[in-house]
Task: structure prediction
Amino acid sequence: MTLSDSTLPHLIAVLWFIICWAGYTRYASWRGRDTACLASVLHLYRQDWMQRLLLRDNRIADANVIGNLERNASFFASSTLIILAGILTALGASDRAVSLLADLPFAQPVSRGLSEVKLLCLAVVFVYAFFTFSWCMRQYNFA
Result:
């Protein structure tokens, strides 16, 4: 099996994407342990808020804050579903999408199979995002 000149850049792009995703995830978790970043500072504020929450009798404002945070996660989860619907629609009409993109002057022409693989990879990313936001909503429900 030989790689043609047109598939090699696509394979390099996929590998680069995977390396960047995994690398940034590891870097962010490693760096977040030692450095005061937004996530670590917010974690400290949440811990302080929860300790003060236990001392208050009236927790209506606290329930409102948690509900607000849950609505934000719900918005992002529903947005990923809308994007997934668009990706699956484009996947269903990939012939038309390929011909439409071929008319653009700056787009490089690709085969239908390659465009479907790219759309499926994009769908996998947004499915992962949906489940991440759904898990976030579940965590807020536990709170």
